[in-house]
Each structure stands twice: as structure tokens, then as C-alpha cells.
Amino acid sequence: MYRVLFITFGCKVNHYETECMKETFRARNWEVIGEEGQADAVVINSCTVTASGDSRVLTALRKARTRYPEAVIALTGCYPQADPETASKITEADLICGTKDRGRTCELVESLLSDRKRTVLLSDHKKGDLFEPMKCTHYEDNTRAFVKIQDGCDRFCSYCIIPYARGRSRSKPPELLREEAAGIAANGVKEIVLSGINLAFYGAEMGLTLADAVEMCAGVDGIERIRLGSLEPEMMTDSQLERLAAVPGFCPQFHLSLQSGCTRTLKAMNRRYTAEEYFALTERIRRFFPDCTFTTDVMVGFPQETDDDHAESVAFIRKVGFSKVHVFRYSRRHGTPADRMSGQVPESLKTERWKSMTAAADEMRETYLRSLVGRTVPVLFERENCPEFHQGRAPDHTLIKISRKNPEKSLRNRIISVIIEENGPDNCFGRPVVDLDYDLI
Question: 391-427 pLDDT, tens per residue?
Fold first, then answer.
């Protein structure tokens, strides 16, 4: 039996695609191993969002070639797709392919095991490309499954290379989604997280919407929760929100990508909304979901961002009241319009702004977690990795911990109502509403 090691960088979509490739390898009688084993092949699924991300991929390639000198090394994903000329010259990789034809990865690796003929398969995405029919029904976690239902992006934000790496927006056909959701449920998974590169645009080319995908998954026996991945703040109409609110298992946690709370900066980023329009959307969502939470991503140090722009952005995130904010510094990306802009912000100033934005985000996070104390929430318990606590996620994705009296017993994959009694810096502690058997917990 051949053995394969996967190394994955980047977003949840990348991780989903790795899981799909693992399933393909297993179907052809390969053993998927961890880094401690001896590999016959190493598949590196890359990310190219930032230049530093490219560097991490190249470092991983060099380490893999040194550690597994006889293995077939395959480089796939966004990095080679976005920069095929540079990627094709990487000598550490025996197989170089991009964000297309991942279903053939195992077949191509097996071919290289016999003839060792270095292979480069990189072709441009074209308008009208179909959604690649990947699926994964086996998850080691067995409580939550990420399912990619949309790929590509038509928006071309001025700082982003991803439309060049992923192509135009396209969606998973409903029949394939239904089949995949049924397979996931049959393996005992209770929660599905719908994911995509620009998820809000799911189904646009088919006359469907994101609400159709949620309703379809909710109709599958065994699926008790449906959660959305990162969303661009577009396409969320009142009609869609009304339909989502009618789905009993829908988790009202909305990760609405913001990038900046300053309209002037948003325009320079080529985002398609103003700060005022973004705020109006959060208010509309709250009408349909009074107990919803918002999380987001915010960039600091974009070219030409002034101190006043930054202050406006900080004030805006406070105004929305996010439960969690991922703050990151702008990173120049060759091949994007923002890389050619004048007024690049010095790294030292980016760091100062990152600190002030992070301080505001941390304060909001603490305020939100403190507000949960006294509430009762249904918690889906996850893999046991702590002897002192059982832990799982509430519908708002907050990590909840309860005391674990018996390290040999598990609550994994059970949904239990928990009263929140205390908050920590990034999670809450509670107790079950109904006393559980002492031997169980």
C-alpha cells in the first residue's frame, strides 16, 4: 500500500479540497499518513493570498524534498495557478498543477511513481468553466463538515489575486450538493458549513440563491445544523433572509467580510459597498435574527489610508459591535492594482494601526462573551482533546466548555443544552441544563 502525506495552506475551501483529494487517494487504496510516517507521495495544497504565504509554501516544498527524497512531490492549489510561469520552474516538485482537475491528482501521482517524468499541468481559467465535481463524505472530526458549494470570484478587489487563481464565479449543481450532504449525514456528521470563495453568489448562474442551498441541506435526514462560511456583504436580500430565518437548524452567525470601515478606503479597494450600506445590512439581518452575531475581517494599512481613515474604521467596528474581528495588515501582492498604488503605508505604521484595531476588537470580544453569561445555548460537542473539559460550539460558534469528570467518557457529536456561567478571554464555561449521568461526563 502506498502512503501519502498532505500539507495544506490557506482557507477552509483549500482544506475542503484537500479532504476531497484524500478521499480519492483512499479510494485507490492509498494510506493517508501524518508527518511522522514515511511517504511515497507528498501533496502540497497551496495558498497565494499574500507574498508571505508563497514563501511558506516554498519552504514546505524544500523541506518535503529533503525529508522525503524518494517521494513524488506534488504542488497544487492557488500559488501555481496565479503565477504559472514562476511555479513551472520549481524543481522541488515533480507534479505542478493548479486549481483545476484535483480529481486527477492521485492518478497523476501514480503515473509519476512509475516513470518519474516531471509534469506541469497549468491551464488558465476561462469564462464559462464548470464547477469541478469534487465531494467529501468522510471527516475525521465526525461532527462538522465543510462543503464547498461555490468557487471563483468576479469582483476583482484591487488588493486580491484570488480571481486570477480561482477563475470566475461558478456553483455546485443542486443534485451534487444533495448527494454530498446525504453522504455526510450517513457518516454521522450533524453540522454542515457551506463554504466558497464568494459564497453569497452561490447559484447566480443557475437562477438559485444561497437560501436554496441551505434549505436543501436542512432537508437531509441527520443534518441538524447548517452554518455559512465567510460572506461578502452582497446579494443578501430580505427574501433570502426571510427564508433562512425559517430554517430551524440554521446558525445565525454571519461572517460578513468588511475589510475597512472607511468608505473612502473601501472605494480604493474596489469593494462594491459603502460603510453605510454595510451597516444597513447588519441592521436588516438583525430584524430577521434578533440574536444573531457578526464576525468579520478588517485590513489595516491599505495604500493611501490616513490616520483619519483608520480612526473611522475603528469607530465603525465599534458601531457594528462584532463578536469577533480578524485584524490583519495589508500585504502587497504582485499582479494586483493595489501593488502599483502610490502612498504605500510603512510597515511600522501598519503595526501601530494593527495594535489599535486589535485592541478595539479584543474589547468587543470580551464584551460579547460577557453578555452570554446566564444564557442557555445548544452546544454541539466536538473531538475530546482536553482531560479537564468537554468542549463544543454554540450556534454563534462560541467555544463552550463544561467540566469533564471522567476522561474516559465522551460527549462528542452530541447536542446538549448548556447554561453559560462564566466567560474567559476567548470562550465560555457552563453546565448542562439537565444533570447528566456522572459516569458519562
Answer: 999 999 999 999 998 888 889 999 999 999 999 999 9
How many Cα atoms within 13 Å fall on the side-chain side of residue 291?
12
Q: Which domains does the chain have, with CATH numbers?
A: 3-121 (3.40.50.2300), 144-353 (3.80.30.20), 376-432 (2.40.50)
Distance CA 15, CA 21 (A): 10
Q: 279-318, pLDDT tens digit by residue?
A: 999 999 999 999 999 999 999 999 999 999 999 999 999 9
| Residue 339, pLDDT score | 94
User: What phi and psi values does residue 386 have, to the nearest 5 degrees?
Assistant: -140, 125
d(C-alpha 18, C-alpha 405), whole Å: 36
For strands 389-393 and 399-403, give the pairing: antiparallel
State CA 123 to chain mean position distance: 25
What pTM value is reported for the model? 0.92
Count of CB atoms within 10 A of residue 433's CB?
13
Distance CA 399, CA 403 (A): 14
Structural contact between residues 415 and 379, judged by C-beta atoms closer than 8 angstroms? yes
**Do residues 5 and 45 touch, judged by C-beta distance below 8 A?**
no
Residue 177: name the closest of 220, 139, 207, 140 by CA: 220
- Residue 389 and residue 403: Cα distance in Å, rounded? 5
Nearest to 369 by CA among 433, 293, 434: 293
Closest to 277 (Cα-Cα) out of 305, 258, 252, 300: 258
Q: Locate 382 and state its grid cell.
A: 466536538
